[in-house]
Design brief:
alpha+beta, 6-stranded antiparallel sheet, 6 strands, elongated
């Protein structure tokens, strides 16, 4: 490919310039300040470099640079996909860029409005500008590979297809390995649960029994305190005194007979309650070891339920 033509309007110190380039090797020479760098700056601008209002000629409202290139085959797919292909002149590629004093930049490819990113993408495939410390595309791995392939006349289509197929197979393999690891972990988890379930050996109705026993032991101190308080209150009651008082006068008033009998019946029931409470206090202990054992078994039940 080759640069065919470049046109400058109000660029830096150039009012207007049109250069047609011949095929072959071209050299620009001149003393310092002759304007060689201006042409390089113009080429950079029209191929997507950063716009700067300092590039506008003093006293003008905007600058404009146009460049015409041979169309490289490598850029055709991009032009077709972006809708930037010029159907009338397929052998040439026209780039145009303007910058105004407000800093607004506009770009065209083959006369069709384009973004600066699109202009830069195309420009990277059209030319390289090599300075003392700037190698541009030579620092890009893709460009170096293409350069080596072109020098060796190597077609990478088959290799690219096989590489993509290998990557697809490799990704599928990695996915399968991860799935297998996940299944193995799940298998180990289920085996552990089965083993724990066998050790637990749950029985019908055991859960309710465990909860009841656990609640009783967990509140053992409160139960003992309540029973002891009840015994103390009952032992200090004055029901016997009340019955004796009524017995002394019931012979004179028959209406007091029934209340006295109720009190006597209550005394019998109270003494039964006292016997029951005292027996409960004698046989009931806090049993912290048993409570800990129930805690562990209930926790195992819960873990199995999950």
């Amino acid at each position: 490919m080759a640069l065919r033509r470049i046109v400058l309007r109000n660029f830096v110190i150039v009012s207007a310039l049109e250069l047609d380039w011949e095929h072959g090797f071209t050299v620009l020479t001149g003393e310092t300040g002759a304007g060689k760098s201006i042409l390089i700056d113009a080429l950079q601008l029209v191929t997507g470099a950063r716009a700067d209002v300092a590039l506008i000629r003093e006293g003008e409202q905007r600058t404009e640079v146009s460049a015409e290139f041979d169309t490289p085959s490598s850029v055709l797919p991009f032009l077709y996909e972006a809708g930037l292909e010029n159907g009338e002149e397929k052998e040439t590629l026209l780039l145009r860029r303007t910058v105004d004093t407000a800093g607004k930049s506009r770009a065209w490819i083959n006369g069709i409005p384009a973004t600066v990113q699109q202009l830069r993408h195309v420009g990277e495939q059209l030319l390289d500008i090599h300075g003392q410390h700037a190698w541009q595309s030579l620092t890009k791995p893709d460009a170096v590979r293409e350069l080596l392939d072109a020098y060796g006349r190597i077609t990478t289509t088959v290799l690219r297809t096989r590489w993509q197929a290998w990557r697809k197979a490799h990704n599928a393999l990695q996915t399968a390995i991860k799935a297998q690891d996940s299944l193995q972990n799940e298998r180990e988890r289920l085996a552990w649960q089965i083993n724990e379930l066998e050790k637990l050996n749950p029985q019908a109705g055991e859960w309710d029994e465990l909860q009841s026993a656990h609640n009783r032991l967990a509140n053992g101190q409160a139960l003992l305190d309540a029973a002891q308080s009840a015994v103390a209150v009952l032992e200090e009651n004055s029901l016997h005194t009340a019955v004796q008082q009524l017995q002394n006068v019931v012979q004179w008033e028959s209406d007091l007979q029934e209340p006295m009998e109720i009190l006597q019946s209550s005394i019998v029931q109270m003494e039964d309650v006292l016997r029951t409470l005292r027996a409960y206090l004698r046989r009931t202990e806090l049993e912290p070891e048993r409570l800990q054992e129930l805690d562990q078994r209930l926790a195992l039940w819960v873990s199995m339920a999950r």
